[in-house]
Every structure is written in C-alpha cells, then in structure tokens.
Amino acid sequence: MASMVSVQGLSKIYDDGFKALDSVDLEIEEGEVLALLGPNGAGKTTLISAICGIATATSGTVTVGGHDNVRDFRAARSMIGLVPQELTIENFETVFNTVRFTRGLFGKPRDDAYLEKLLRQLTLWDKKDNRLLTLSGGMKRRVMIAKALSHEPRVLFLDEPTAGVDVELRKEMWDVMRDLKGSGVTIILTTHYIEEAEAMADRVAVINKGEILLVQDKAELMKQMGKKTLTVDLDAPVDSLPDSLAQRGVELGADRKSLIYTYDTAARKTGITDLLADIRKAGLHLTDVHTKQSSLEDIFVGLVTEDAA
C-alpha cells in the first residue's frame, strides 16, 4: 500500500550552517495516527513545515497523496490541514465566518452543510455566531482544528494540539482525534504530553538533532523496549545491600527499606523466583511486592538520552 505521506532524504540547512533536518526518511500510512516525539529543538516543527511546503528543504523530496510538494504544490497542500502551536485567528470575526473563509482560500465551493457538521463534531455549533475573542483558549484551539479541516484534507498535522488546555478538554480533544481517524484522516501529532501519544498513536517516531531515531508500532515498541520494575518493601531498613542481591542488579531504595529490581518482560526468565529466594537467604523480611511497567515516556527519555551521549 502506497504511503499517504512519503519523505525521502529530507534535509534543511540554514545559512549559518545549522542543520535542522538531516536526511530524514519517513513513510506515513493512510488513516494512521503517528506521534512525532522529540525534545525542544529536535526538528519536529521544521519537519512539519517542510512537509506542508511552508519551509523550503535544502534537499530531499516529499509527496502527499502521490503529489510532489514542490512540483505540484497546490495539489499536495490541498490534501493537508495544519493546526500550528500558535493561535493564529482573527479575533473580531465569528466562528462560522472564519471557518468558511478558510475553506474558500483553498478554492473549495461553499458548503455550509459540511461546515455545520464539522462545527457540531467539534462542539462549536452553539458558538458559531460568537466572535473569536469571546472564546476560551480551549475553544479557540477547536476553531483552529475546524479551520484546518474546512477544506476536507486527508492529512492533518496537529502541532501540540492540547498545549495549555485543561485535562478534561484534553480528553475531549482525544475523542475528536479518534473521530477523525475513524473517518480515514491521517493524523501526525506532535506533543510534549507523552500520555497523549500513548493514548492516541498507532506508531511512534522519535526525532532528535534533526534525525529520525526510530519509527515503530507503539505496542511493539513498548513490548520490545519496555521494562518492568519490581519493588520489594522490607519490614525494616538495611544498612547495606547483600552481595547476592547486588550481583543480580538489585538496588537499594532511597528509604533503605525497599529493594528495586528491573527486568525485561520479554525475557525467557525474569529471575524473580531466584531473587525472592536470595532475599530470604539474606535474612530479609518483605512486607509487600509491587511492579510498575515502563511507559512510553520512559522509553522516549531513554532513547533521547542515549542519542545525546
């Protein structure tokens, strides 16, 4: 199956020599949600801008729906909706008029029925006649999404879509994204809320220093790279860790009343049974045992830290 968005050897080098993108290759499938993760300055926004044709790449190619975004810019750009980080809206215009105007900018014929459906989907219909300056920050963010979808694109870029909104509204925005995905829209999401990527993404791409470090199915990534931490609570603090436990990679908790053991859930043997036996042999008495599965955030931090080393 052909990719909806295909990026080949994309580089962006500024006049001062700074390399914002370094030979990026990325294939994005139709109808998927791809979370693009990376620290500040990693190249996320530059990559989005280059794909959308806002920034000119130094080298490489981008196609959207089979259209080259340089040779056939209008056709490629018409397939893209972009929700930038900044709230760029006309404060004195009404919700409905600003969305209708944006649709017209893409040369689309007037279709008030479609815009009504869109605004209802985004819980904006009752605000359609409100001036934008009267809306809350979260509602303005919804208007930005409505503008991006007004011309019926097949690819939607969401650059930090829930930045600055409360937890309740963030969850509502997730529902909107699920509805869009259900209608076949391809979504590329950048976010600093790793839980957002964990909740929404089909695949995860990690970028750092302008290079793609990894692109992988989210579930498979967590299965392959995820770790589990076993914490054993003791009935009394210990002065030092017995050698038999230290050799297994066990660490003593900061309170000196817990033992911490990290293991690979995919390994044939976790070593937990032998560990518990060694704890008993060492004369230690446990009061509780609990585990914690590493999250996508743990994996992301590990990848970026390793790349920086």
TrEMBL record:
Keywords: ATP-binding, Nucleotide-binding, Transport
SMART domains linked: AAA (SM00382)
Name this polypeptide is given: ABC transporter ATP-binding protein
Sequence ranges assigned to domain ABC transporter in this UniProt record: 5-234
Family annotation (SUPFAM superfamilies): P-loop containing nucleoside triphosphate hydrolases
Cross-referenced Gene3D superfamilies: P-loop containing nucleotide triphosphate hydrolases (3.40.50.300)
GO molecular function terms attached to this record: ATP binding; ATP hydrolysis activity
Pfam family, one: ABC_tran
Entries under PANTHER family matching the protein: ABC TRANSPORTER ATP-BINDING PROTEIN
